[in-house]
Amino acid sequence: MNAQIDHALEEIRRFRPSPEFAAQAVADHGLYDAARADRLAFWADQARTLLHWEKPFTRTLDWSNPPFAKWFDDGELNVAVNCLDRHVEAGLGDRVALHWEGEPGDSRDITYAELTEEVKRAANALADLGVRSGDRVAIYLPMIPEAIVSMLAVARLGAIHSVVFGGFSADSLASRIDDAEASVVITADGGYRKGRVFPLKPVVDEALGKTAGSVRHVLVVKRGENEVEWDDARDLWWHETVATASPEHEAQAFEAEHPLFILYTSGTTGKPKGILHTSGGYLTQAAFTHRNVFDLHPERDVYWCTADVGWITGHSYVVYGPLANGATQVIYEGTPDTPHPGRWWEIVEKYGVTILYTAPTAIRSFMKLGRQIPHEFDLRTLRLLGSVGEPINPEAWIWYRHVIGGGSIPVVDTWWQTETGAIMISALPGVTDLKPGSAQVPVPGISIDILDDDGVEVEGEGGGLLVVTEPWPSMLRGIWGDPERFKETYWEKFGDKYFAGDGARRDEDGDIWLLGRVDDVMNVSGHRLSTAEIESSLVAHPWTAEAAVVGASDETTGQAVVAFVILKSSQAAHVTDPAEASEELRRHVATQIGAIARPRQVFIVNELPKTRSGKIMRRLLRDLAEGREVGDTTTLADTSIMQIISAQVR
Ligand code: WTA
Question: Residues bearing N6-acetyllysine (predicted)?
């Protein structure tokens, strides 16, 4: 009966594009037709139309050595010129590129001409510090314009940026600096978050004490006005170095496959992977999807993606896609609830935002607060909403469309990953009928399949593993310094098909529903965390003997980190209060990895459920963490163990 009702609801909840929207839409059915007729010609055409090539390419794809793809590889371009100079040369220099809003309420409007000049100065300053093509520069900044300027200045020089989210700890920053052997770090004294200044430069100082010593210079933006220590031989202020550098900078063109950035993301092992992206293909797909999935009309839209540049969404849909398309966008430094819970909606009203791109976890937390908060603001400029990072449940989708979008505007749910570089599955607004809860269809030029473990296509509604069957322009080109891990992680399972690590099913209309990760990667508030990484942090604490971490479903954050820890018997004498021990371990993980990794709960237990071969059965721990009846325990070495653990947890 319930299944029937669900099904009926699903049937009802399908939304045709409005004729008015469709009439002005950027995308049309022709995109699908063109891509189906000749996928490579389609991408070549997009690359030529959307980008400026200093040297045009003649080869579209070289897939002779899978999984190492080369796109447009005999062409040359400069990514920063594509995002900046060419718009100024086209007479759009006075268009606002960034409406920046600081958390304390300060703001700056920066035009394309101003942004171009600032990037040229920063490129000159970095070149003076010895940064050359191919060198790595770590960027550890709050969401301030200098973050975007830094990324583009590095790109302009053909150097490689590695942006590290400002919430990561000194240890996490140090391991990323070491892995990439960065020669320069760009940071700020501090930034604003939840009404306070959080220090960044002191974290960099601490991190550099732990690295192998590749970093020669630290360039520091003054933002928080907090006290910082200074090393005259190493540290430079941005306002003294960049502001005084020349605003003239002749950009050099680089090959399409020239590396653009490394971005670290969690995998199934304890060590984050440095995902490598290159220039021409990446920028093509970022620009194409930004234009068509968000129906961008650059001359009139005000676009706002709420992601931080520390994540892939910030790379592709704050920096590269929007700027390549000449968009006007909002960036905001702080948290959604500072100084009041309507801050985001106040920003939408202030700048007349027309396109909003955010994560389900944010939508769900606004839902909890109630519609009266957004209703205090004028949100009528909004005409398109986007979602990314995790499955959006139909209730949140409907709430987003009604309460934020006023009831009739398109909501696009976009599936993609750090590795895919750009959106892979999404409706096209004005073209596709929308279905809440489903990410829907591959974007034109992308081929997706759902396979079982043996690589056989799953027919009908049964779930399987999501794979990308053909190379795509913005695909990762490897894992920094570890080609073997690249092959093993993504390509070993299905040969020359890319294994995404997500479960999915197709419904009878051919729409794709994402079912969550099939590996040990958790998704907390749209951020990827690995169980292994948090377990190794927990066992690094002197009190811990053993630890198991699971991602338990959570109403607001999607999943939450729940840890089960056995303390060392040698510690039993000092650690008498389990509540205190659990608090200490939560704090420890936050310090070691970053606040986003802090477990929601740490349960101190005497045993962990293991199979006869010694493998921890996380499935059973997840049952406990989610308050469910514990599942089948027959494969446990000792079947009574779950009772003991349950008693300790409750
Ligand atoms: C999940 C974020 C369902 C998925 C851009 C993927 C999603 C992981 C969606 C990548 C979506 C992202 N629906 N799940 N629309 N978007 N995911 O690398 O599990 O931070 O593998 O990239 O997030 O996370 P990442």
Answer: 615
Q: Say if residue 473 carries a ligand binding annotation.
A: no
Whether 517 has a binding-site annotation, put simply, is yes
DSSP letters, 348-407, are: HHHHT--EEEE-HHHHHHHHHH-TTTGGGS--TT--EEEEESSPPPHHHHHHIIIIITTT
Q: How many CB atoms lie within 10 A of CB 105?
A: 11
Percent of the chain with pLDDT over 70: 98
Predicted confidence at residue 9, as pLDDT, reads 52
pLDDT at position 615 over 90: no
Residue type, 638: D
ipTM above threshold 0.90: yes
196 annotated as a binding-site residue: yes
- Average pLDDT of the segment spanning 24-43: 98
Phi-psi group of 116: left, alpha or beta (phi > 0 → left; psi -120 to 50 → alpha; rest → beta): alpha
Which of 341, 371, 344 lies closest to 358, judged by CA? Answer: 344
Q: Tell me whether residue 413 is annotated as binding.
A: yes
pLDDT above 60 (res 2): no
pTM confidence score:
0.94
Report the alpha-carbon distance of residue 499 to residue 468 in Å, rounded: 7
Ligand 1 center–CA 414 separation, angstroms: 8
CB 204 within 8 A of CB 173: yes
What is the Cα–Cα distance from 19 to 25, expressed in whole angstroms?
10
Ligand 1 atom closest to 500 (CA):
21
Going by pLDDT thresholds of 50, 70 and 90, the confidence category of residue 635 is: confident
Q: How far is the CA of 389 from the centre of ligand 1 (A)?
A: 4
Q: Which two tokens stand for residue 338?
A: 């500072």
Helix (H, G, I), strand (E, B) or coil at 96: strand
> What residue ranges line ligand 1, CB within 6 angstroms?
265, 311-313, 388-391, 413-418, 439, 500-502, 514, 517, 523, 528
Give distance in angstroms: CA of 542 to centre of ligand 1: 34
Residue 454: what pLDDT?
94
CA of 3 to the centre of ligand 1 (A): 27
Task: Name every residue whose Cβ is closer than 8 Å to that of residue 432 and which is 6 or more positions away in sequence.
Answer: 17, 440, 441
Ligand 1 nearest-atom number relative to CA 439: 15
pLDDT tens digits for range 239-258: 999 999 999 999 999 999 99
- To the question of whether residue 195 is assigned a binding role by annotation, the answer is yes
270 CB-near residues (< 8 Å, 6+ apart): 530, 532, 533, 535, 536
Atom of ligand 1 nearest to the CA of 313: 5
Q: How many angstroms is it from 516 CA to the middle of ligand 1?
A: 8
395-419 confidence digits (pLDDT tens): 999 999 999 999 999 999 999 999 9
